[in-house]
Design brief:
Blueprint (H helix, E strand, L loop, with lengths): L17 H16 L3 H8 L3 E10 L5 E12 L5 E8 L4 H18 L4 E8 L7 H14 L9 E5 L5 H15 L20 H19 L8 E5 L3 H12 L3 E7 L2 E4 L6 H11 L9 E3 L1 H5 L5 E4 L18 E3 L11 H6 L3 E3 L1 H4 L2 H15 L5 H25 L4 H20 L4
Parallel strand pairs: 3-4, 3-5, 6-7, 6-10, 10-11, 11-12
Antiparallel strand pairs: 1-2, 2-4, 7-8, 8-9
The protein binds nicotinamide-adenine-dinucleotide.
């Protein structure tokens, strides 16, 4: 077929930045969907990109200046939503990619949010708590015209946490002269956070995995899974899947992993990590590297650590038949075709890890109505939205004769462009 939208210039592995990786998938989806050229141009670009300077008096008396970003990719479906990351190497391209993923993720999850992402270029390992608080408060003050419960709602991401969300909420509330819990999500439960938020992403991964297994006619008790990353997403995914009867044969963290064909006792691993902060030394199986985990004998592979783990270099050696992307961007765009040629089903990140933003949406709703649901209520609402999202993406993939990843992008493009047509272009 002829392609209306050109892919970025030829690339070698590792040369594509996250935004270009996202655009390859977006372009394929736009092509298949036959997206109108004008709408394509509108949807590919963020609607707003803000860069701020953050001067901070450091504990030793020096004045240091940090750079902060907030990218609103799209707000057609509602206020924009997306996390804030603190990292030394973050740049605008990375934030743009993450912001656009949020637009597609919220559209697929059928929640009334657009997509955004924020960041501060800093190394939190070299900062004291009080310096992190000052960075957070000044960043928030600089973003007062952007953030707001009706306009743009941040959340935690890499190296940011509940405490940082509490400081954002407090700083914003000091300026608006009233307590605005709905301005951020991922807050402590004591101040308007939601029950079930901590487990939400892993729970969503579990729901997506079971839905995919059902399509393949496989019952959870008769199958195996390997999970890369044993942090928030990986550990909860492994625990909930093992509770459903899936035999977890491998787990890992940044220091490496363990394989056990008889199944790993996840509760033992959780207890060990709670005490030792790492899996290193836990007697649960044979020691393997993270590279070996990705290529190990298992039915389902769940990358839940970081981006670019599955590349054109190792994709050909993957034995799993199902990949469920707990992490954001774990599969490089150049590996998509290799996996598809091998007949491996991939549940893409923008569907598989959307449990977190779905429960963030529940947190925002609860803050606005001022009434808080119990955990079974949250979990059953999450189950309904995740299952519907999975079925919608599956349907689109079949209808457009494409992968679930491109089907997910097409579903999102269809949803956002339809609302855009209904709203019309003002001006
Ligand atoms: P986390 O920091 O809690 O855990 C990360 C885990 O990965 C740790 O066990 C760490 O040791 C391990 N790890 C780090 N580098 C690794 C490497 N090179 N090889 C193997 N393991 C490595 O983080 P998290 O919140 O679980 O997030 C994991 C991924 O999921 C990220 O891509 C994140 O963007 C994505 N995600 C998280 C959420 C959420 O709600 N937490 C939501 C959506 C997507």
């Amino acid at each position: 077929m002829t392609h209306i939208y050109k892919e970025p210039a030829p690339y070698k592995k590792g040369e594509l930045n996250p935004f270009e990786q996202m655009m390859i998938r977006f372009n394929k989806a736009a092509d298949l969907y036959k997206l109108d050229k004008g709408l394509y141009n509108y949807l590919k670009n963020p609607v707003k990109q803000v860069i701020v300077s953050i001067p901070v008096p450091m504990d030793d008396g020096r004045l240091e200046v940090f750079e902060g970003y907030r990218v609103i990719h799209n707000n057609v479906l509602g206020p924009s939503k997306g996390g804030i990351r603190y990292a030394p190497d973050v740049d605008l391209d990375e934030v743009k990619a993450l912001a656009s993923w949020m637009t597609w993720k919220c559209a697929i999850a059928n929640i009334p949010f657009g997509g955004a992402k924020g960041a501060v270029k800093c190394d939190p390992t070299k900062l004291t708590n009080s310096e992190i608080e000052k960075i957070t408060r000044r960043y928030t003050a600089n973003m007062l015209e952007i953030f707001g419960p009706d306009t743009d709602i941040p959340a935690p991401d890499m190296n940011t946490n509940e405490q940082i969300m509490a400081w954002i909420m407090d700083t914003y509330s000091m300026h608006t002269r009233k307590t605005e819990t709905g301005v951020v999500t991922g807050k402590p439960i004591a101040m308007g956070g939601s029950r079930g938020r901590r487990e939400a992403t892993g729970r969503g991964v579990m729901i997506a995995t079971l839905a995919a297994l059902e399509k393949k006619g496989i019952s959870p008790e008769n199958t195996t899974a390997a999970v890369q990353g044993f942090g928030n997403v990986g550990s909860v995914s492994a625990q909930l899947l093992s509770e459903k009867g899936v035999k977890i044969v491998a787990i890992s963290d940044i220091f490496g992993g363990y394989y056990n064909s008889k199944g790993i006792e996840i509760n033992k691993a959780l207890e060990y990590v709670a005490k030792n902060k790492t899996l290193e030394g836990c007697k649960i199986g044979d020691k393997i590297t993270n590279e070996e985990l990705l290529e190990c004998e298992c039915y389902t592979l769940i990358p839940a650590a970081r981006e670019d783990q599955i590349s054109s270099e190792n994709a050909g050696r993957i034995k799993a038949r199902l990949i469920v992307e707990g992490a954001n961007g774990p599969t490089a765009a150049e590996a998509d075709q290799i996996l598809s040629d091998k007949g491996i089903m991939v549940i893409p990140d923008i569907l598989a890890n959307s449990g977190g933003v779905i429960v963030s949406y529940f947190e925002w709703v609860q803050d606005r109505i001022g009434y808080f649901w119990d955990e079974p209520d949250i979990n059953s609402r999450l189950n309904r939205l995740m299952t519907e999202a999975f079925q919608n993406v599956y349907k689109y993939a079949i209808e457009f004769e494409t992968s679930l990843r491109i089907g997910a992008y097409i579903y999102a493009i269809d949803k956002v462009s339809n609302v855009l047509r209904l709203r019309g272009i003002y001006g």
